[in-house]
Design brief:
Length: 450
């Protein structure tokens, strides 16, 4: 065996062992404690699960922010902010503020994984993101065919990412269980520098993210739909194609979230692997997280501290390789998240529920100039407008009347809220639906009693 062949074997072993130790990044009180307890139980029954973190490109499964790592990498249905670039590009379709994410992860074997992500909203046209992921093995021993030490080298793997996601469906009926759907794609260019050899290739990931009523989201990601192929002198590394399906559910007014991913490799015989994660919010500034990644046999935990629109997060994971650490910073700027929700989503001006209340939340760092709430019928004609200066009130009520005080006809009505800051930058919510009904049995009962 040549010295160069020995290097290849040594690097392969190091990649398999060190990638396996990589990890990333969420908890909330009683319900969270139960969830974390179940994760601990899972840890005790999963020791026979094989690991395959040393496969080509596997380090990308450990990239992204500390939040994802602490939730056991159950993030395909959760993906938001800049982490969408890595976990599910479809999440960029729901992006609001500009976001930068910096993350550094390290293992007990001195391998480091650094991630830099940026996401920019395009509002009703979705959003795009950029990313850079770098894994450095650190100093590895260089030996000859007799296993004699000849020096050292390092294994450097890098990937550049470009993502885009946009909304593709919005429900036109308030009663629909499925509310919105977004789709996206990530183009990536990967390369590896190993001793005196280099290889590179490009690929693509695809993703879909759907939001349902009752704080339920579901996501699908086809990682390496176009698989990067790294060609060396005597061999070619092909990134493994993976299909992941995820579900996330929010409880306690979204102060507690539970997420789970199910993953299957395509083209090879492999059992389904899954992961589970929880995230809880306390006092609106502390985020506690926990998770279990069955694929890599890792139990994870972490926390985040929110200040303004930014967050500092930490995550740790433990497996048979030891304890790994992950530290990240999320910085948001420009734009601002704006949400509006009608409650109830269906009412009758002559029934028991004579009006609906629009709950409004705007998280802005700069002074606001003004706001406008438009309500349109199904033909796109504006029937009612609410507007004002400064920050909109937390609640607005609508009784189904037009601008002239007349009652609108029964049907679906589309509402959007637009907010303008002092610099003239505008933010608009996605179109949503509220329904007005007349003549239901309950309505007629109330009319007879008058």
């Amino acid at each position: 065996m040549t010295g160069r062949g020995r290097v290849g074997k040594t690097a392969c072993f190091q990649k398999r062992s060190r990638n396996a130790g990589m990890m990333k990044t969420g908890f909330s009180m009683p319900a969270v404690l139960l969830a974390v307890g179940s994760l601990l139980l899972l840890c005790t029954v999963s020791q026979a699960v094989p690991q395959d973190a040393g496969l080509p490109g596997a380090y990308l499964g450990f990239a992204g922010g500390a939040r994802a790592g602490a939730m056991g990498r159950s993030f395909v249905a959760v993906a938001d902010g800049a982490d969408c670039v890595v976990w599910n590009p479809a999440g960029l379709g729901y992006l609001r503020p500009n976001t930068v994410s910096l993350t550094h992860a390290g293992t007990v074997e001195q391998t480091s994984l650094d991630t830099l992500l940026y996401a920019q909203p395009l509002f009703l046209r979705g959003g795009f993101g950029l990313g850079y992921v770098r894994m450095d093995s650190g100093s590895l021993p260089l030996t000859d065919e007799l296993n004699r030490r000849m020096g050292s080298f390092n294994d450097l793997q890098q990937t550049y990412l470009l993502s885009y996601g946009m909304p593709v469906y919005s429900a036109r009926s308030a009663g629909r269980f499925l509310q919105t759907v977004s789709a996206g794609a990530t183009f990536k260019f990967s390369k590896q520098d190993l001793y005196d050899t280099r290889a590179s290739g490009w690929g693509m990931d695809l993703g879909v993210l759907a939001k349902f009523r009752r704080n339920i989201t579901a996501g699908i990601k086809l990682q390496n739909a176009v698989a990067p192929r790294l060609k060396y002198e005597t061999s070619t590394d092909i990134f493994q194609r993976l299909l992941t399906v995820g579900v996330a559910v929010g409880f306690l007014k979204n102060n507690l979230s539970v997420a789970s991913d199910l993953e299957k490799a395509i083209g090879v015989e492999q059992r389904l692997r899954w992961s589970l994660g929880v995230e809880g919010i306390m006092w609106n500034v502390i985020k506690l997280r926990g998770g279990f990644d069955l694929k890599n046999k890792e139990f994870a935990f972490g926390f985040g501290y929110v200040f303004g629109r930014h967050e500092i997060a930490y995550a740790a994971s433990t497996n048979d390789m030891g304890l790994s650490h992950n530290l990240g910073l999320v910085y948001s700027f420009g734009g601002f998240p704006v949400t509006i929700q009608a409650n109830p989503q269906s009412f009758s001006p002559v029934g028991l529920r004579k009006s609906t209340t629009f709950g409004i939340m705007v998280k802005n760092s700069q002074r606001l100039y003004g706001w406008t709430l438009d309500i349109k019928n199904q033909d796109g004609v504006v029937v009612r407008v609410f507007r004002g200066s400064g920050t909109p009130p937390p609640e607005l009520s609508w009784d189904g009347s037009t601008q002239k005080g007349l009652m609108v006809a029964a049907g679906n009505y589309i509402y959007t809220l637009q907010v303008t800051d002092a610099e003239g930058k505008k933010e608009m919510t996605m179109p949503q639906v509220v329904r007005i009904e007349y003549g239901t049995p309950l309505d007629m009962l109330e009319m007879r009693t008058r």
